[in-house]
């Protein structure tokens, strides 16, 4: 059954991993309350949402397509009790390699997810080379990957945000990001919602970097003149 994403569509691992991030977030402390959780005992570890939001991602691959759960009795009880508020409108989805690309990830998104996967598996294995074209080459024998990309060459908010995150984590490069001009947009499109969530994660990583940076990276105020 095709999935038409709506405000009543529940992606369980998105809700769980966003809650985990909010609880641990530095910049969000005591502000946005975390969403209700869903028991993650049956969550597939290879979810691309897990890859995005979990620093300790363990799988060596990821999946990003979903199918609709049409049988209400197959929905976890924590979710079904809330979904009943929207009779006839709710949708509950499960990760499924034969399912739909409900977040409409494009080729650049997938290349950057491959790069993020390489980084999660081994933070020393990924090299980024500035390029106007976008591609990733992985040598499984030597266990290293080379990402060819630049911020301006990437298409879409998610790909750009992953690029910013990797530049920060690998090279300590923070100059490309300006949190006064957000990469994500505020609308109800599923990919926009995903980008909003991931941008808050990226912003938190930038904040942690800035408060722990070396003294020579701190801004020096010019001397005052008498």
Please sum up the structure shown.
By secondary structure, the protein is α/β, with parallel strands linked by helices.
Describe the structure.
- The structure is a single chain.
- The chain has 226 residues and is an alpha/beta fold.
- The protein has two domains: 1-102, no CATH class; 105-206, no CATH class.
- Helix content is 35%, strand content 12%.
- The protein contains six helices and six strands, in the order βααβαβαβββαα.
- The chain has helices at 12-24, 48-53, 77-83, 107-121, 157-171, 190-211; strands at residues 9-10, 66-68, 91-95, 126-130, 135-139, 144-149.
- It has a three-stranded mixed β-sheet with strand order 1-3-2. The protein has a three-stranded mixed β-sheet with strand order 4-6-5, covered by helices on one side.
- A hairpin with a 4-residue loop joins β5 (135-139) and β6.
- The N and C termini lie far apart (74 Å).
- The mean pLDDT is 85.
